[in-house]
Design a protein that fits this description.
elongated, mainly alpha, two-stranded antiparallel sheet
Length: 144
């Protein structure tokens, strides 16, 4: 159980790090600090990889435990501390999911803003359903 506890604790630490990094990304995207967000991508990738490694170790430990006692339910095999760790991990994953959802909404809004700005500034052709082509820019005209 000690090894399982260690893997669970490490996985929780990685989740907490990911939540913290995502919260920082949310703050920074609202302040247009895009360079900081891109610089954190490597940290996030490392934390994700570390979490996935710990998760695989947790799965292996629990499978081993279940194979040792095939006639018992998993809830009977796990002690209270392990159950607490698993509950904390579930809650942390839900928090991370919510933070990622918030971040993706803000990132999408920023992307849409820049896309619409580019479409208004730089000439581009649009095509309607009838096949007619229209120039959609009002600010900039390019002449050859």
């Amino acid at each position: 159980m000690v090894v399982l506890h260690s893997h669970l604790e490490n996985a929780l630490n990685q989740l907490k790090a990911l939540i913290d990094l995502t919260e920082r990304d949310i703050r920074d995207i609202k302040l247009a600090k895009h360079a900081e967000i891109f610089e954190r991508n490597h940290q996030k990738q490392l934390a994700i990889q570390a979490f996935e490694k710990e998760k695989a170790n947790i799965d292996a430990q629990m499978l081993s435990l279940k194979n040792q006692f095939p006639n018992k339910e998993m809830s009977e095999l796990l002690d209270e501390k392990t159950s607490d760790f698993l509950n904390q991990m579930r809650e942390s994953l839900l928090v991370l999911k919510e933070k990622n959802l918030i971040y993706s909404r803000v990132a999408f809004a920023v992307s849409e803003f820049y896309s619409s700005l580019i479409q208004q500034i730089i000439p581009h052709d649009t095509c309607d359903y009838k096949g007619s082509r229209h120039v959609g820019s009002h600010f900039l005209r390019v002449q050859a």
